[in-house]
Amino acid sequence: MDSSKNYKLYIDGKWTNSDSGETFPSINPVSEGVIGNFQKGNKDDVNRAVEAADKALEKWSEIPAPKRGIILLKVAQLLRENKEKLARELTMEMGKVLVEARGDVQEAIDIAEYMAGEGRRLFGYTTPSELKDKFCLTIRRPFGICGLITPWNFPFAIPAWKIMPALICGNTIVFKPSSDTPLCATRIIEIFEKAGLPKGVLNLVTGPGGTVGMSIVKHEKVRCISFTGHKDTGASILKEAGLKKVGLELGGKNGIIVMDDADLNLALDGVIWGGYGTTGQRCTAASRVIVHEKVKNKFEKMLVNRIKKLKLGNGLNPKTDVGPLINKKAQEKSKMYTEIGIDEGAKLLIGGKIPKMKGFFFKPTLFTNCSIDMRISQEEIFGPIVSLITVKNFDEAIDVMNSVEYGLSSAIYTKNMNKSFKAIEKIETGITYINSSTIGAEVHLPFGGIKHTGIGTREGGWTGIEEFSEIKTVYFDYSGKLQKAQIDE
Ligand code: NAD
């Protein structure tokens, strides 16, 4: 890869420089070296991108949805052909270990194929009228121009979760990716270009969130904003978006309950994968383990033994278990939260340090004797730090699980079927796993959270279509006379 290469914006089917004349680097979190330079977009670039999306809208939305789906299938095919190369670049750009990077690209392939199929459905419904000789139905329409703003932690999958349904519904797009992963975003666009997507339908503007992101959010021609990222960014977007449709996928403080009858080896795998996979940088990361007092000591030892064996390193090395954090700021944040945890009186069992090696690494960290009011049990750290909270019984476990402001994902390990069902009913999250970790979303199912994780947004599955289309209600009167609902007897 040529680190001095300047990558461009993609507007109206052309690769173009920003009006700002400035660039920013994307940094490899292992080598701390530059991967490439990207355009520091500004408001004028956003205006150009919106104009292009506006110009392309009518033609694109008139293409029958099943035919739009054919482009998505081509995209899926190209992603598949380039999967290994893309996964390696993803690992270089954000540090995720290669097996997980392959999963990220695979998720983009899956959603492209799934949404291509939805192009043959895009269901509305029909229903009888309360009047004679009258017929009622609903149809789906695109919003128009969608502004898609994405984070860095799933740099192929998350843009794909938005781009694919938005396109199949007939929208055009202005896409603003995270400044930590602009290369992956550029690769997505290259693939759409190769697949023959008409110009102007999908536009890429890289650059700072406060200028590029906010200009998209405030642009009067943008009808729908779909955002995934931090809760504070989401809140400011909601405030500024005005009368647009806004979808927000925000943070999490997800928990795994380990009951006294749990298969502890299974739970151990789940906590390690959920807590330390992607270096804890998943919105669904299991950052809290809520463990029954009867198995606490045993499970704690099992965890420490396993954490000791986790190998930190370059994700391209097949022996690496845990990659780096995304950047220096994230590394410092993990360090800060370790100090907070110690100050709050939690017991540091393992980790808690920046290792002596190049790159933004942080040692997998486990705290025990945590209480629910501690900041390390409440706040999203987005690093390899897990808090263990001991409980006396099932009811207390549920209370602890629900004691946070977020509501994304949760898990319970138990062999008791009644308790599993009770947990499904009582836990306040958008997703609950029984006897598996807090992660593992599949593209044909709704994904999203409650409380401060969002505002009811559910991407994936059929609900993904609902996020990117509007309903029109149609009354078809074939009586040949004026009929009045609610008035005619
Ligand atoms: P972030 O909020 O800092 O950035 C997300 C995107 O918003 C980036 O593209 C950024 O440039 C842009 N942005 C920043 N400020 C903006 C502004 N004022 N106006 C408009 N756009 C702006 O989040 P991040 O650090 O990239 O991602 C981590 C966060 O994302 C975590 O909180 C994580 O839980 C969350 N996340 C949630 C989900 C989910 O589906 N619920 C999935 C992945 C990540």
Task: Write up this protein.
The chain has 489 residues and is α/β, with parallel strands linked by helices. The protein has 15 helices and 21 strands. α3 (83-94) crosses α4. The longest helix is centred in the first third of the chain and has 21 residues, at 98-118. The chain has helices at 43-62, 65-81, 83-94, 98-118, 157-168, 182-195, 209-218, 231-240, 264-276, 296-309, 328-344, 375-378, 394-401, 417-426, 461-467; strands at 9-11, 14-16, 23-27, 34-39, 126-128, 134-142, 145-149, 172-176, 202-204, 222-228, 245-249, 254-258, 286-292, 347-350, 365-368, 385-391, 406-407, 409-413, 431-434, 450-451, 469-477. The strands form 6 sheets. The protein has a 7-stranded mixed beta sheet with strand order 14-15-16-13-12-18-19, with helices on both faces. Strands 9-8-7-10-11 form a 5-stranded parallel beta sheet, with helices on both faces. The relative contact order is 0.14. The structure holds nicotinamide-adenine-dinucleotide. Nicotinamide-adenine-dinucleotide (NAD) is lined by residues 149-153, 158, 176-179, 209-210, 213-214, 217, 228-230, 233, 236-237, 249-252, 283, 380, 382, 408, 449, 453. The site of nicotinamide-adenine-dinucleotide (NAD) has 31 residues, from α7 and α8.
Topology:
Elements: E1 9-11, E2 14-16, E3 23-27, E4 34-39, H1 43-62, H2 65-81, H3 83-94, H4 98-118, E5 126-128, E6 134-142, E7 145-149, H5 157-168, E8 172-176, H6 182-195, E9 202-204, H7 209-218, E10 222-228, H8 231-240, E11 245-249, E12 254-258, H9 264-276, E13 286-292, H10 296-309, H11 328-344, E14 347-350, E15 365-368, H12 375-378, E16 385-391, H13 394-401, E17 406-407, E18 409-413, H14 417-426, E19 431-434, E20 450-451, H15 461-467, E21 469-477
Parallel strand pairs: 7-8, 7-10, 8-9, 10-11, 12-13, 12-18, 13-16, 15-16, 18-19
Antiparallel strand pairs: 1-2, 3-4, 5-6, 6-21, 14-15, 17-20
Helix pairs in contact: 1-7, 2-4, 2-6, 3-4, 4-5, 9-10
The structure holds nicotinamide-adenine-dinucleotide.
